[in-house]
Amino acid sequence: MTGADEPDSLFGGRLRLFQPARGAHRAGTDAVLLAHLFEPPAGATLCDVGAGTGVVGLAYARRVGARVTLVEREPGLAGLARCNVALNALPAAAVVEADVLAPAAARLAAGLVPEAADFVVTNPPFLGADHRPSPNALRAAAHSLPEGGLAAWIRTCTWLLRPGGHFGLIHRADALPDCLAVLAGRFGDVAVRPVHARPGRPAIRILIRAVKGSRAGTSLLPPLILQNDDASPTPESASMHCGSSWD
């Protein structure tokens, strides 16, 4: 395990998490929002693709009793994810070391099973190949995709999801056209929720839900506002971050 000596406490202490040392990519608000995107029934199978240390998938395992697979390429992060499964006593969660962008044969060899998940959630790397990478290797890997990487990433998510299954992701607001283009023909019943830092400001993130194989149309949901004008958290944001909605 390579990370901080003491675990962080998330969701009001309902989840504890070993994370990489400061300077690497660590779970934040994006993970919190993605962990509340769905309300799966108890026992549903869920894949967290690009799971990092596992915060999103483990939140679903703790909150609703989902059976979770954490998919992570980097061995160090996968090791931390395994520690976090044990730390939180969540035996229904498993870690699979696999490259999301690898060919299907390699994914199968790593232990991934196609069309087995009821839900797939993902926080894909947000930056393209033209962005200057971070000098921290783990942070760079967590933030950057090669040319065409987003389409390949979502294709793997589609491959993991059963027909009629639910897909969810969070991304930058300006990536909405690219996300919708990749979903077209594979998903319907697409619901987009913009996320704003404060009222009256442009969206900084988008949350997208979609159903594999559905023919239903696309809807734009009311915005999620993270902070009031005085920088205090909105009730919805506070509830998600402290885990009070889990009770």
Automatic annotation (TrEMBL):
Region (Disordered) residue spans: 227-247
Name under which the protein is recorded: tRNA1(Val) (Adenine(37)-N6)-methyltransferase
Entry's EC annotation: 2.1.1.223
Record domain Methyltransferase small: where: 31-149
Species of the source: Methylobacterium dankookense
InterPro entries cross-referenced by the UniProt entry: DNA_methylase_N6_adenine_CS (IPR002052), SAM-dependent_MTases_sf (IPR029063), Small_mtfrase_dom (IPR007848), tRNA_Adenine-N(6)_MTase (IPR050210)
Molecular function via GO: N-methyltransferase activity; nucleic acid binding; S-adenosylmethionine-dependent methyltransferase activity
Keywords from the named record: Methyltransferase, S-adenosyl-L-methionine, Transferase
Keyword Transferase: yes
Organism placement in taxonomy: Bacteria, Pseudomonadati, Pseudomonadota, Alphaproteobacteria, Hyphomicrobiales
UniProt cross-references to Pfam families, sorted A to Z: MTS
GO BP annotations, alphabetical order: methylation
